[in-house]
Amino acid sequence: MTRLWYLFGEALTSFRRNVLVVSAAILAVFISLALAFSALVFNELVNLNTIRWQQGNHIIVWLQDDLGPIAHTDLLGQILAYDEVKSADYFNKAQAYQEFQEMFADNPAILDEVDPNVLPASIRIELTDVDLYESV
Fold it and tell me: Which parts of the chain fold into alpha helices (H)?
């Protein structure tokens, strides 16, 4: 047991003598953890967007809240008139919030913070060929 106390005592003495090295080591660990965390977040974002892309949502048009139902229907008809469009679906605020709840089901802190009225309505467009997205 005395050897263990001697070891800790010498370690603390070394820390006091080399404050710069200790602070550099702590900073290096902090930076490496921050980089690892950001890589995990980036990976999650890529996975979510890849899943959405594979499900056929090639273009998402976010709509303003002040548009009426007639404007939504007219816009949806104009989008479906394009030859490049395979299908287009209207998602209202309730559907957007339901999708948000499914996406973040494992993170209740985010679900508690988001008001359902904040999420906009949208039109999800699936193209016949993904390379034709610029013409739409």
Answer: 2-17, 19-54, 69-80, 93-103, 108-113
